[in-house]
Known about the structure:
single chain; 80% helix; 0% strand
Amino acid sequence: xxxxxxxxxxxxxxxxxxxxxxxxxxxxxxxxxxxxxxxxxxxxxxxxxxxxxxxxxxxxxxxxxxxxxxxxxxxxxxxxxxxxxxxxxxxxxxxxxxxx
Length: 100
């Protein structure tokens, strides 16, 4: 392999952890019966999909023996950053809903 895939293991680890946090938020919203009243569950669901995609792509990057591994890693990086932004929006919505 021509690249040293130094970001992919970190992306995989972090996106898997954040994926678990997203599932925790979704479960909490369902238990508290708040899932239909806010946009928090929709935004968290989008972040969940993004983190899952990022995890899959970073895993493929680690396992790839060809040049595709670099492309997988770059895509995982961009999707991970998008998921972080979506999670940031979710946190802002939760914060402002609790402040009311």
